[in-house]
């Protein structure tokens, strides 16, 4: 991968646009080489901000209270758990509500933005190295504390951009269609349900945009 800002001295700055809005991290933009290794051509990414964590149950409830999001029952309903069981459209509804509330432009990330944020200037399959290490991510047989369930957001260590759970915990929706088929969306990052290799920074999979699942969530991005 070609890093955006080689040798970043400090974690990028963060902000919130409202008290119950997600914490966002500003990224400088640059170039990312999609996939594992050196196979793909580098893709340019403009500066943007991305959620430090997956959207939480608490943050989703604020949207429900405003009448803009659906109040579907979930298995893990504590405030700091990542919000599961959300369709792609429902994730977009949440982003649209944030946009109306703040006057800023929120949306789902593109695949290139998501992968750029996940790799955070690294060139290995995981930001910490070549293979999964115990306690680094929430995935199948990765951490005995979280067997068969996700973890509260920000439980694991962040990546070099200060972002949590880009590897594992929940699959995350993106705005991109899957290989031209817009009835399906590309998801990124693996989840608690899947094997460690599915939690690589380059990991991607299709999902019917109309379905929801207990191992799928999302985070948002915001234009500068």
What are the segments in which pLDDT stays under 50 over at least 5 consecutive residues? 1-9
Topology-level CATH name:
paralog of FGE (formylglycine-generating enzyme)
Mass-distribution shape? globular
CATH architecture: Alpha-Beta Complex
| Total number of domains | 1
Task: Give the % helix.
Answer: 10-25%
User: Structural class, from helix and strand content?
Assistant: alpha+beta
- State the order of secondary-structure elements, H for helix, E for strand: EEEEEHHEHEEEEE
Report on the structure:
With 224 residues, this protein is α+β, with helices and mostly antiparallel strands. It has one domain (14-222): paralog of FGE (formylglycine-generating enzyme). Helices cover 15% and strands 19% of the residues. The protein is built from three helices and eleven strands; from the N terminus they run E-E-E-E-E-H-H-E-H-E-E-E-E-E. It has a five-stranded antiparallel sheet. A four-stranded mixed sheet has the order 9-8-7-10. The longest helix is centred in the middle third of the chain and has 15 residues, at 88-102. The two termini are 24 Å apart.
């Amino acid at each position: 991968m070609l890093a955006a800002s080689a040798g970043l001295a400090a974690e990028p700055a963060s902000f919130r646009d409202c008290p119950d809005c997600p914490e966002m991290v500003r990224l400088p933009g640059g170039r990312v080489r999609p996939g594992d290794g050196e196979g793909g051509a580098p893709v340019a990414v403009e500066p943007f901000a991305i959620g430090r964590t997956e959207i939480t149950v608490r943050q989703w409830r604020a949207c429900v209270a405003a009448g803009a999001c659906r109040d579907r029952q979930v298995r893990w309903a504590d405030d700091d758990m990542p919000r599961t069981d959300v369709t792609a459209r429902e994730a977009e509804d949440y982003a649209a509500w944030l946009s109306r509330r703040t006057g800023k432009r929120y949306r789902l990330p593109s695949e290139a933005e998501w992968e750029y944020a996940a790799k955070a200037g690294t060139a290995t399959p995981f930001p910490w190295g070549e293979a999964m290490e115990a306690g680094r991510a929430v995935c199948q047989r990765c951490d005995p504390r979280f067997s068969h369930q996700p973890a509260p957001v920000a439980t694991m260590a962040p990546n070099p951009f200060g972002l949590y759970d880009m590897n594992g915990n929940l699959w995350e929706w993106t705005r991109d269609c899957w290989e031209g088929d817009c009835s399906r969306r590309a998801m990124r990052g693996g989840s608690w349900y899947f094997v460690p290799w599915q939690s690589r920074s380059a990991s991607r999979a299709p999902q019917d945009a109309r379905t929801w699942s207990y191992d799928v969530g999302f985070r948002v991005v915001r234009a500068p």
